[in-house]
Specification:
The chain has about 180 residues and is of the alpha+beta class. Helix content is about 25%, strand content about 20%.
């Protein structure tokens, strides 16, 4: 057993070792090698995306011989552009950071509205990932048929409970 402390990205090849990402409105991004031998997870908010957390994790995995086409990813739940209004300066930073890599309407679909999940998905597709799925709801406003919120939201609740997104490799499945 190994304690890693608090980090924004982690990967493992060890069976029966779970990796968890704790979020409220930021992106949990879970990765799996298609053969089930390797998994990874990222906590990515706007700071992480601007800092290139995904590209840094992927660069490390590539140094270890991994190829993006052998991997799949799942993104979310996270705050959607419907509720994620940011300053003009931050929207401009995102547009500048992704300029020439991802269409501006993917990054900022409306004035001062960031689309973190779609931006992350486009980045992963550009890296060559085999498949990328986004959970299609917003942590702040999406509700179920009873009117209850589907998830926790820092922006809605101001703190409190978080979502746990977990991935791992089952030793039983590897036999």
């Amino acid at each position: 057993s190994q304690t890693c402390g608090e980090v924004d990205a982690l990967h493992t090849r060890k069976p029966d070792r779970l990796i968890a990402v704790v979020t409220a409105d930021c992106l949990p991004v879970l990765f799996a090698k298609k053969d089930g031998s390797h998994v990874a997870a990222i906590h990515a908010g706007w700071r992480g995306l601007i800092a290139g957390i995904t590209e840094k994790l992927w660069a490390e995995l590539e140094r270890g011989g991994e190829r993006a086409r052998d991997w799949v990813a799942a993104i979310g739940p996270a705050i959607g552009p419907c509720c994620y209004e940011v300053s003009e300066e931050l929207a401009d930073r995102f547009l500048a950071h992704y300029s020439g890599k991802i269409p501006g309407k993917t990054v900022v679909p409306e004035h001062r509205r960031l689309a973190l999940a779609h931006t992350q998905a486009a980045s992963l597709r550009a890296l060559g990932f085999a498949a990328v799925e986004i959970l299609p709801f917003c942590t702040r406003c999406s509700r179920d048929a009873d009117g209850s919120f589907l998830s926790h939201s820092y922006r809605r609740e101001g703190g409190g409970t978080r979502q746990w997104s977990v991935i791992g490799i089952s030793a039983a499945a590897r036999v």
